Amino acid sequence: MPDLTEAVVNLAKRRGFVFPSSEIYGGFRSTWDYGPLGVLLKRNVMEAWWRAMVQERDDIVGLDAAILMAPKVWEASGHLATFSDPLVDCRKCKERWRADQIGDTCPNCGSKDLTEARPFHLMFKTHVGPVEDEGATAYLRPETAQGIFVNFANVLQTSRKKPPFGIAQQGKSFRNEITPGNFIFRTREFEQMEMEFFVPPADGQKWFEYWCEERLRWYVDLGIPADKLRLRHHDPEELSHYSTGTADVEFAYPWGWGELEGVANRTDYDLTQHSKFSGERLEYYDQAANERYVPHVIEPAAGVGRSMMAFLLAAYDEDEVGGEKRVVLRLHKKLAPYKVAVLPLSKKDTLTPTAREVLGLVQKHFMADYDETQSIGRRYRRQDEAGTPFCVTVDFESIDDRAVTIRDRDTLAQERVPIDGLVEELRARLA
Ligand code: ATP
Question: Going by CA atoms, what residue is nearest to atom 4 of ligand 1?
């Protein structure tokens, strides 16, 4: 599909997945709001991650740290000194670019008359409290990871976990990106899903490889075709100052391969730095071996917006039903915003009580939509576009035979089932 990005962006806006932020004021600098369908998809992505990383394991626990942290954190982590991108200005058209993304030519006007690259700091700075002096400076976190490192000792003590174990966290991060873009792929405010896995130093490489495979598999399990994913290992000169190995999980976006998630071996860098700057011991005492060590850290760090974009792109499909073009989002049922739509065949009042009764039953178990406007065909299309796996149609016979019809988004097969067994039937199909 040549204009896949455009088709997905249009669908996302038209159907209420994503709105430009502050749209009535003309929008605001590549920030986006998630609408009724988008917030459901976003939560489902985050829930699927939490399930895989925390719920279905006994070696990872969760955390929810504050966005604002002691400024010392960013000194210790190295962000204050080094968290910048190389910025160049085009002298001809005055556009600004990230030097590492454009080479020696301005993508806007083609001029080669660019300034020397200079570092542009990516952290948002603000003030805490009523006085705007240096002592009140604070930063919006550019990654959630540091909240995990500074809580390492707290979690170790209270959870009684021991290496290898992980701490997982989801939350907002902020970077003053020079060139945000590609819809929700790169924004200045974004949501991350990060996990720091603490291991004995000798096991770092083994766990790095484990998490590369594990994270790649997560996307495949949620419906992204394996041939649209790859693991790209960084060259030595590309590595961050703290890392001995990094691999990106990349997705074949319509504009080329792009990072979905980075898996990094951060060694003992962060714990050692925070230990130095805070004066607290951040290590693990292995009683059995009578040995103290600073664990090494493997970090899979994913972005919610980027994966939503990938899930939408991979799910978008067009086909023909009854001689009519249909747009369908073949989202994995775990990710689909609505699992079920309850549709009374017509808007006639006689159907309403039964249809409402069915909605009430279903709603307790699954996120459900209810739609009684327009023709049934139009309503099926609307649900197909939203990725709803199953429609449940209530017709005039339903009142007497207490049965409804389930329609499958992908096979289009329709099957009549008793209202009594409907929840169980849907549960089995959604499992
Ligand atoms: P890039 O090279 O694309 O700027 P990065 O290597 O700086 O990304 P990391 O620091 O590894 O990104 O962040 C981990 C994850 O957080 C990324 O894989 C991505 O999913 C997400 N992420 C980072 N920056 C942004 C952003 N500006 N907008 C949306 N998601 C982001």
Answer: 186
